[in-house]
Amino acid sequence: MDYVYHYTSADGLKGILESKSLWATNAEYLNDFREIKEGIDTINSLRQDLPELTQTRFEEIYAEVRGIPLKDIKHKMQNANIDKANKFLSSFWDALDKNELSDIYTVSFTTERDSLNHWLTYGSEQTSYCIKFNKDKLHDNNYFIRHKFLSDYADVVYEPRKVMLNLLIEKYLPEVLDYSLDESSNINELNRKLSKLVIEAFNDIAFEVASIKNKAFMYEKEYRFTLYSPGFVVINDDPKVDYFDLIDSSDIDFIELENGVKEFFPLSYRTLKSGVIAPYRAIPFPKNSIEEIIVGPSENKDLAVKGLRSLLSSLDYNVKVSSTETSFRRI
Questions:
Q1: Based on the structure, what is the number of domains in the chain?
Q2: The whole model's pTM is what?
């Protein structure tokens, strides 16, 4: 069973427990000012490594990923429409240029329990708290898809370049080649499949972008929830289309908006410690996903524990309360 931890102030903890939600902040407003930009720069640098590829290079990629002898692939690809694979790459870069990666919201966790670094960085000068979440009990991706959002839970990546390159080469190019080798598909069906793959690749890269952080922050050992609204997408010169109209969503039991609500997880705003006003979305969590709350370094530790237990009881949470084992004090 895996656990992740969220460090917060007393006011933050009270808000989380009372609302049964976590605030997913727009990724442009996080503590690494190069969030998102770091990821986009990384993707753009890949363009130099993925120029228009020759048939020989496609054969090598397909043989390696699919585990098929290269000589068999060469024979199979003699009449394949390899231009479609290069069109996929071109369309992907075009989608990256035309579709903004601005509607990305994240909640930061860490795999570090009772960490002095985190008490100092994310707590307050008074009493701080560390919430222990059971990862398996948090809402899964299907929950958010039914609300027409995409989501991801993943470790933050501090050395991202190879990961992104492998994602494009190992996951998507072989699938494009599968479609190109399928003689039963007509040209319209093939183009529709390729358009869907372009957007899937774009969305995957959006989550990769949201998980990238400068390696100076590696000590945080961050684990991140990311919420992303795909909205309308543009492929090449085609008109905008809603993402969920583009994909096959017939098997998704979407939840309908009611009582005049315009969108799920609506935008709200909060003031950061710096005084900056930041947009966020409140993300609900199941009450039983919290298993422990640790009271951080405090001159009033016993009183803090007592007050927390009283709050938990009033809100009907069944949660273990413990105190930090660190010996830090502010002097």
A1: 1
A2: 0.83
